Amino acid sequence: MHVIPCIDIRAGQCVRLLQGQAEQQTVYGDDPLSMAQRWAAAGAPMLHVVDLDGAFAGQMGNFAVIRAIAHSLAIPVQLGGGLRDLETIAQVLDAGIHRVVLGTSALEQWDMLVTATERFPGQICVAIDSRDGQVATRGWQTVSQVDTLGFAQRVATVNVAAIIYTDIARDGMLQGPNIPAIASLARLIDVPIIASGGVSRLEDLQQLAALEPLGVCGVLVGKALYEGRFAYQQACAA
User: Fold this and answer.
1) Per-residue pLDDT for 151 more than 70?
2) CA angle 146-151-156, nearest 5°?
3) Quick check: is 85 catalytic?
4) Which of 26, 28, 182, 189 has the highest CB neighbour count under 10 A?
5) Number of alpha carbons in the 13 Å side-chain half-sphere of residue 19
6) Calpha distance 58→127 (Å, rounded)
7) Pairing of strands 124-131, 47-51
8) What SS3 state is found at 97?
9) Options 53, 129, 167, 171, the catalytic residue
């Protein structure tokens, strides 16, 4: 199971939000490129980058720095945030992004998701961001009436590379991931799952690693790394 560092970019800065709330922001640096190089040098197998401006506005806001990150690293970069049409997806993949993460568009534009998986095989992931058992969209500002597990089952019918599951209530809170929910999802579908949200201790990573036989292939870690709860090499060892 891979430990994947996160870089959330807003107005050109590396930030983390509490539960996705735009007004609850902590800035961890003003140079996303050097931060990306730091995690690559530490041995990360992949980076997860989010264009938060894109997630909130529906169109990319940090493309130049994201392209620079993709061009400067030898490891793959996974990108989400504001990717809501096929042209934008093609643009970022042509710019060197390894694969893209669709959230809002996956829920609201199902036919586009299906077309994207056919046109870009192995390069489309779906983010399922859950608040109280329902799927949230538009930078987590809108909560739909769509059941999280039901939507995951539908996503599993198309050829996505992975599902990135986030329990929004845990994200940025350093209170541990929602292990029961992740395990339930992994048992329900036959799609690789990347867990996200709440990792604060090495024990959290050990609990997630125990779910690897169910199909949990990775975990996104952000705030715990930035705040020094553990070193990246410790996370990999756990």
Assistant:
1) yes
2) 175
3) no
4) 182
5) 9
6) 15
7) unpaired
8) coil
9) 129
H-assigned helices in the chain = 32-41, 52-57, 63-72, 86-94, 104-108, 110-119, 148-155, 179-188, 202-209, 223-226, 232-237
190 is catalytic: no
Pick left, alpha or beta for residue 182 (phi over 0 → left; psi -120 to 50 → alpha; otherwise beta): alpha
The DSSP symbol for 123 reads: -
Which residue reads 């390069």 in tokens? Answer: 123
Maximum Cα–Cα distance for the chain, whole Å? 42
What are the tokens at 119? 């046109």
| Identified catalytic residue from 8, 53, 167, 204 | 8
CB 238 within 8 A of CB 205: yes
| Predicted pLDDT at 10 | 95
Q: How confident is the model at residue 117 (pLDDT cuts 50, 70, 90)?
A: very high
Token digits for 180?
């029961």
| First-last CA distance in the chain | 10
pLDDT for residue 178: 92
* 8 A C-beta contact, residue 42 and residue 233: yes
The residues near 177 (Cβ < 8 Å, ≥ 6 apart) are 167, 170, 195, 196, 197, 198, 199, 204, 207, 208, 219
Global pTM reads: 0.92
**Are 72 and 36 contacting, i.e. CB atoms less than 8 angstroms apart?**
yes
Q: Please name the helix (run of DSSP H) or strand (run of DSSP E) that holds residue 178, with its range, or none.
A: none
| 32-82 confidence digits (pLDDT tens) | 999 999 999 999 999 999 999 998 888 899 999 999 999 999 999 999 998
